[in-house]
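ok so I'm stuck.
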Amino acid sequence: MPQSRYGRTRSGLGDWWRRGAVLIAVGAGVTVGRANGTPAGRYAASLALQSTYEHFMQDVLYTRTGHDRMWGPEHDLARANIVATFESYGLVTILDPFPWPYGTGHNVVAELPGTTRADEIYIVGAHYDSYAFNPPAPGADDNASGVAAVLTIAGVLAPWPSEATIRFVAFDREEWGLYGSRAYAEAHVHENLRAMINLDAISYHPSTGWPWAGVYGRPASKPLKDSVAQGVSYYGNLMILDGGRRDNSDHYWFEQLGFQAAWLREHHNNTLMHTPQDTIDTPNYVNYGYAVRFARGVTGWLVDHAGVTPDNPVGDLNCDYAVDHYDVDPFVLALANPAAYAARYPDCDPRTGDVNADGFVDFGDINPFIELLSGP
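replied:
not stuck anymore, here's the structure
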């Protein structure tokens, strides 16, 4: 979040919750909408792993004591790692330069091109620069936490086809006045940007209670905010509070230019933000389990709304994105009569029955399939 502020306002929040529902609370008005999702979304969300998220925070984004993504060499080193990570997923990745008062900044943009709705664009973004009033600025929570989520989401979705285009953007120089996101939004103002989801400061949750999260944006973005809140509630198992308008992060310029945008962030006030103590080395500070819930929520939401089609997991012979006892009969059918299996499950790939990964669906898969069903 930037050093300079953009006239933010904050409405009162009510402490209301019902399990299985998402709460949207603004001022005195409270609405409760049923959260919903899909088997494909649930499966994709389950692949956003905490271990992957921790790897990005600990080994990729320079978040340790003494690191400085403000003016230090770690700024460019982190940027290079972000590029390399996106490219390792097979995504077309570019450095998108823009001017700012102290030189040239670079957004990192990776794209998963759409198949049937390519002109519809969904953006998931987070800023990778950091700030501290007294440097160095490790910026673990603000905002390596959001970038790690974007990298995690991209890694899950990149192998699969998507009807709409998804862009994963690591914005630069947010902390000095939203320069990177402004340049990007203005350059793409004539595109069909259907949604911009901004992840900024998502890893600070000191409470042992149920995890709350905030969603922010202007009234014009309410349809997107409500939809994203439901997705994150369902797939990430977070309770969502609508904090109303809050302009001091990268979603701001997208809203200013007429697009719907939503900022997802932690609920608790982080007093170590913009200090050298915003580091993963601060004891009991970064809550990885909490942060990865955001990644899971956005992953599932994108599957449903951008039209991503995940590959079915190994052993999912009835194509419901779960491996359970309902797969036993189709597994037997695939072994005994492949033609009958193809006729009964025309949209399924029988290769999901190749549990021992030897290239064939045969009797050698029986024991591994049983072990898969009775697994951990």
